[in-house]
Amino acid sequence: MADVPAPGSVVVSDWHRCKDSKEYFNKILHKKRRKNFGLLESPVMPPHAAVDTVHYKIFISGKSGVGKTALAARLAGLNIPPVHYETTGIETTVVYWPVKLRESGRVLFFRLQLWDCGENALRRFDHLLPSCKEQVDAVLFLFSFTDRPSFDDLSNQIGKWNGPSVGRVAKLVVGTKFDLFMHCDVAERDVRDFQETMGLPLLRVGGEVSDGLGDVALLLNCPGRAAVASGLCHSWIGPPPVTAGGRDSSLIQRS
Amino acid sequence: MSSSSNLVAMKKVVQQLRFEASINRVKVSQAAADLQQFCLQNALQDPLLTGVSSSTNPFRPQKVCSFFASSGALPSHIAARPAECNRPLRLRRMNHGTTLLWNRRCGQLGLLGCVVLTELRRHDATPEPALAPPLVAANILEMMLQDGSTHLLCLTASSGVPLFTRGAPRQLPFPVIGSLNGVHMFGGGQGVVLSSCETEGGGKVVWRVFRDSVMLIAVSGGGSSSKEEEARLQRLLEDVWSCMVLVLGQDELTNMRNVERLKRDLRSCFSLIDQLLEERQQGILGNLTHCADSLLPPNPALLQQAVDGFAQAADSEFGCLLVHGRIAAATEKWWRLAPQEVVLLSAVIRSLSASGSASCDYPVFLPHGSPTVAHRLLRFQLLPGVDVCVLAESELVGLFWSPLVEALRDCLALGKRCMPTSVSLRPDVLALLLINRDTRRSVSCVRTHPLPSDPPLPSEARCWELLKLLYIFSSTRYFSQEEALCVSPEERSQRGNTEDFVLGFSHQPLQCYSVTDECKSYGLQTAQHQLFLLMPPSVPTFALRSVATQTLSDIVAATGF
């Protein structure tokens, strides 16, 4: 869509590789692995370098078995479950990620709350989808490269999020299991065509996750970028509505 | 040498030539006509033209079939062997003898009939219709049983359609599943309920039908003594059914309209069921004891207050706080849930907590309290390892819990000790399990740094295992179990067989001990508590009792557990 700015135009895209980001990224690492934050915790910077935290709610949508839970675990740097079990309710995962704004050079912590809900649970219980949709900032539409129907269903899924009732929500398409090219069921040409017609950013993930940040950085910056770009969030960046550094920043409620 | 052997060869050639010269010669046309006639005459017996009938083919693969005898003559005798049956059968091998225990519908248990499953070769083509269903491929079963794991099968009770199988790298082959169902069905036709069976190799099979809709079958390779193994499998089936109700609700399981859809829906229970089968988390004994694994926090009043307040603010009466997967504090109503539900909910929360997600909203049914109406189980990870849960809606996490971060960290620091440091355990206690019989709660711990000694003491993992075995041993033999809440009278009479000792004597055993090479153990029962202790072999046997009583009074005095 027209209002999606070019990659890297709002936040510095590979900031995690720069030296000056090190002190911020150290706050989300523990013994070279990503730190797991409870709801009462958040990355705390020393008082002189306090950083604001911006909250985003991101819903992960996709067919059953497409890899929603695995993607959430991957983004949070958690262990990807070795066996596939259905998610029978909503699970949310919190990811903290420091970003640097390109224009002002200001550093922010993104607090991305990923909402993952099993497809079958959504079908069986009516109350789950409304709570996932409530005040959502971005949606990740997932399809699996090994599952053609999940790709074919995408436009249908995305269509459901276009109505006026939904409001302005940043959208992003993610193709999972890209590493299993032996079983690939979706041709590269189809993906390109799809991307042209829908005009949405599309990412490919799959393969081993090493403990480093580089793997996930691209993805993490991207939803953030899309969310920032959606305009809705532009207003947030001026005066951030949630003050960080204090304990209250980890409240589930949002102002 | 060579010349004489040459001579013999030459003689043979001459003999052959003479033989051929003496043959009566005929014309080719006549020979052809003879050949043709012979072929036409014998065409019916030519296997190339008509094929080989399977009864006369000596090369056909040996068919394995098993045979089901007796049960017509219930309850007069114990065993009926196939040989006693006047059927034209020839017995090949009988190395897979398998006995089944029949449990009559009236609830009285006894060895009323016995079934011998054998591998034999059948020569008659038409089996009796009544004997057709229970064809158990006993040798396959034996093979599967050897690996010592537990298999779980789920079928529809009415039609025997397999819904799922869990718990093994290799699936049980379909004929085996069909046979296990068939044996049960056959018993049903004879007016008996088949509850369990034991194979010669020590394997166990346990059947159970729930709500006339779902049949669960557990198959285990055995190992431990059969009585204890049976109790374990019975409990496993009960727990698996509860898991299924918890996730899907009872209505979905009993009103089966679309089997294919149910099969798909049942997949969502696999995570919990696998957790039950594998017993992944060390040091959690709830599945065994049906008592909630608890942790006694150093500052119970503070946490209790916070849990109560949090639950109240969330418009719920059910709230609990888990540290390291054990309940540190819970509202009064939470403790009033059936013990099995408390254990099951803890298991759900543990598995959610293991995934590392920050919060969850899971619809759950309560197997006893609310099997048809779903509640929302909300779980919030306050710190990694500390979860708070309510059964309702809540968005107030930070407000209530932020002031308590330090108290929570203190709880976390307790680790697997589960008891505040104010409780001083005697140095010669290796491991302990303390059950409060009134509240159905339990605390357990294994010393992580036992004193160095010679011979070396059992490892931590082994201590947990020994503690489990001690519990199973004492509770099946000496201490009666009371689970009035979740066991129906019918089931209790089924279970009654585990209490031989109790039945044989008019008094209740209060204490028991055992001494092995690895450690000494002591079990103690009072009106309110049960305590199971492991101690190093160096402790003199006469001192076991005083160590146990002192430990019990120390813990109860310090924590009021």
UniProtKB/TrEMBL annotation, chain A:
Any Pfam family: Ras
Localization (cell): Cytoplasm, Cytoskeleton, Cilium basal body
Superkingdom of the organism of origin: Eukaryota
Chief localization: cytoplasm
Record has Protein transport as a keyword: yes
An annotated Gene Ontology molecular function: GTPase activity
Transmembrane helix is among the record's keywords: no
Family: Belongs to the small GTPase superfamily. Rab family.
Protein name: Ciliogenesis and planar polarity effector 2
Automatic annotation (TrEMBL), chain B:
Domain of life: Eukaryota
Family to which this protein belongs: Belongs to the G protein gamma family.
GO annotation terms (biological process): G protein-coupled receptor signaling pathway; non-motile cilium assembly; vesicle-mediated transport
The keyword DNA-binding is annotated on this UniProt entry: no
Identification of the protein by name: Guanine nucleotide-binding protein subunit gamma
UniProt xrefs under SMART domains: G_gamma (SM01224), GGL (SM00224)
Compartments where found: Cell membrane; Cytoplasm, Cytoskeleton
Record note on quaternary structure: G proteins are composed of 3 units; alpha, beta and gamma.
Main location: membrane
Annotated CDD domains: GGL
Domain G protein gamma stretches: 3-68
Function field: Guanine nucleotide-binding proteins (G proteins) are involved as a modulator or transducer in various transmembrane signaling systems. The beta and gamma chains are required for the GTPase activity, for replacement of GDP by GTP, and for G protein-effector interaction.
Key words of the record: Cell membrane, Cytoplasm, Cytoskeleton, Lipoprotein, Membrane, Methylation, Prenylation, Transducer
A GO molecular-function descriptor: G-protein beta-subunit binding
InterPro entries, A to Z: FUZ/MON1/HPS1_longin_1, FUZ/MON1/HPS1_longin_2, FUZ/MON1/HPS1_longin_3, Fuzzy, G-protein_gamma, G-protein_gamma-like_dom, GGL_sf
Bilayer disposition of the protein: Lipid-anchor
Cellular component, GO annotation: cytoskeleton; heterotrimeric G-protein complex
